[in-house]
Design brief:
By secondary structure, the protein is an alpha/beta fold. The chain folds into three domains: 220 residues, Rossmann fold; 92 residues, Tyrosyl-Transfer RNA Synthetase, CATH 1.10.240; 85 residues, RNA-binding S4 domain (Structural Genomics Hypothetical 15.5 Kd Protein In mrcA-pckA Intergenic Region, Chain A). Helix content is 45%, strand content 14%. The strands form four sheets. Strands 1-6-5-2-3-4 form a six-stranded mixed beta sheet, with helices on both faces. The longest helix is centred in the middle third of the chain and has 16 residues. The protein is elongated and about 85 Å long.
Amino acid sequence: MKNFIEEVTWRGMLHDVMPGTEEHLMEQMRVAYVGIDPTADSLHIGHLVGVMLLKHFQLSGHKPLALVGGATGMIGDPSGKSNERNLLDEPTLRHNQEAIRAQLSRFLDFTSDAPNAAELVNNYDWMKNFSFLEFIRDIGKHITVNYMMSKDSVKKRLSSESAEGMSFTEFTYQMVQGYDFLHLFKNKSCTLQMGGSDQWGNITTGTELVRRIAGGKAYALTCPLITKADGTKFGKSEGGNIWLDAARTSSYKFYQYWLNTSDVDAEKYIKIFTFLSKEEIADLTEKHTETPHLRLLQKRLAEEITIMVHSQADLENAIKASNILFGNSTSDDLKQLDEATFLDVFEGVPQAEIARNEIEAGIDVIAVLNEKTGFFKSNGEARRALTANSISVNREKVKEDFSLSTKDLINNQFVLLQSGKKNYFVVRVV
């Protein structure tokens, strides 16, 4: 049995923990759960800290439960929110649950015969047949309104800063989450709930229900909410969330997100989002400090997490795609990119369309550079650039006698024009 609390503490993953938790976990195999909101059919990297907690819990010899909040997802957790959440129907929640399970299986062992194999549970399964009268009679009477009002998540929503106020539905959320803990305590011998630091109030409502209704002892543990050194929100890019699903966030963009992490954040994230040992991380950090321009921490972080979420092949493709812009890539490298990755790499680069029949007939390069695309303002300017040997088509230098044809198409659809080192233009054939 590994010391789970010791492990998450040195990794910077512990914010608060109920007294006695460490001793409780060292006695024998225990069961813990983390709740996951199923409002989308993919996790995003904001979920990863909770998932990593479950994985470390399993690696320490304990049994993790991933709770998909089908019932609570129908309500909306007020913690850290300023507005009420959109409510989802059951078919959507079931679809999201299966997609999330598939992603979690890359981290957690659900299939082995080991006593600590992970389980996926959905609180909708035990809440759907609970009548309102039963709930307020059997559960509600054990927790006072005063107790519920004392929680920070409730206080914030009822404060003068919040224009929205708080619906009764959201107010009851902590009771529903608290009942989850009680149900899992009774039916799965679960004695620990883990979550983000904003969940402390909801988790301790659960420990209170376990004490008052089941006469048992349950524990709470929270991890810090991940922040970025520059004050911007972790897990967000200009395009929104960084998702684990490659259809929502390509492996290239995923890799780039971690690669572009600041030194301060990389030193923190490599402990939280990888399974590298304390010694490996210390050695890597020392080397990074000596040669920060090599960005060793960022590269290793991006590599480890891209392989974990996607695959080794996806990592290699992401590195190839990164080298298109920043390395000495070739025409062959370009032609290996799939359409989605190509468009990700050259996102924001000016584009123009040329009819396919014109490409099939062949177009001289000066017409492509000026008349057809507007990359250059005049034929004379294009001609001077060609004479100066500063024009490339798909990474290969071309002269004035060059003619663009179908053999030059990337994915039978694109051509990359380049002037000098940094000026790019994408031609899309339609």
